[in-house]
Write a structure and sequence with these properties.
Elements: H1 3-17, H2 23-30, H3 34-46, E1 51-54, E2 58-61, H4 74-90, H5 93-109, H6 112-118, H7 138-147, E3 151-156, E4 162-169, E5 173-175, E6 178-185, E7 190-195, E8 199-203, H8 217-223
Antiparallel strand pairs: 1-2, 3-4, 3-8, 4-6, 5-6, 6-7
Domain WYL: 138-202
Pfam families: HTH_11, WYL
InterPro entries: CBASS_pafABC_assoc_protein (IPR051534), HTH_11 (IPR013196), WH-like_DNA-bd_sf (IPR036388), WH_DNA-bd_sf (IPR036390), WYL_dom (IPR026881)
Length: 233
């Protein structure tokens, strides 16, 4: 591997993991010596890449650092196109429109041969004809997750039992044909998962929920046996 490629890969690895990484870890990933990693980090820092830390402790890339524009391989472009098409077909209309904008931008930065292939990619996302009917506003839930805002709604469980819930929405996740909302439920004082197609009469009280240890998304994932780091991979 060329040194320039390795420096690029080090920055990209640190961006992707968003945590302190050690020189030993980087050396293993890059298949070089720890001493080489020390030199690489020093050179990146000298080039004003915002890496904090020191040898023997670990390194952290400050949030917000952007790499120069990338050139995509055919497989990478296909992966991005498929992801955007899935969002365009299955998400709320506001997010779907953003996905279509991403596709347009992707097409604009691809070289001419890949631009032609993009429309001919064999991977696709069919329309959401098979999605369970959703009457609540997914965009509103998505924004509530982003803003840490409480939501209130009526809910009908699998047994047909109805209840009123006020929850702290932690995520909006898509599983197959179903959108789900993992949340901290004030009524049950525990984590619960709600299917969006079983929610009714969504209300946004305009109240933000506090940051409470043990009631956030990382705690929910740990309860499910999932490492919080896995969602960033």
């Amino acid at each position: 591997m060329r040194r320039a490629d390795r420096l690029f890969d080090i920055v990209e690895y640190m961006r992707r993991h968003r945590r302190v990484v050690t020189a030993d870890e980087l050396a293993g990933k890059m298949e070089v010596s720890v001493r080489t990693i020390y030199r690489d980090i020093a050179d990146l820092q000298a080039s004003r890449v915002p890496i904090e830390g020191e040898a023997g402790i670990g390194y952290l890339l400050r949030p917000g650092y952007d790499l120069p524009p990338l050139m995509f391989t055919e497989d990478e472009a296909e992966a991005l196109a498929l992801g955007a098409r899935i969002v365009a077909s299955w998400a709320d209309e506001e997010l779907a429109e953003s996905a279509r904008a991403v596709l347009a931008k992707l097409r604009a930065v691809l070289p001419p041969p890949l631009q032609k292939q993009m429309d001919a990619f064999g991977v696709m996302a069919p329309p959401d004809h098979y999605r369970a009917e959703i009457v609540v506003d997914l965009a509103a839930i998505r924004k509530a997750v982003r803003r840490r805002a409480k939501i209130r709604f009526g809910y009908v469980n699998a047994k047909g039992e109805q209840s009123e819930r006020t929850v702290w929405p932690l995520s909006l996740a898509f599983y197959g044909h179903v959108w789900i909302v993992p949340a901290w439920c004030e009524k049950r004082e525990a984590f619960r998962v709600f299917r969006a197609d079983r929610m009714r009469d969504l209300v946004l009280p305009g109240v933000r929920y506090p940051k409470v240890p043990g009631r956030d998304l990382d705690a929910y994932l740990l309860e499910q046996g999932i490492s919080p780091q896995d969602r960033l991979e």
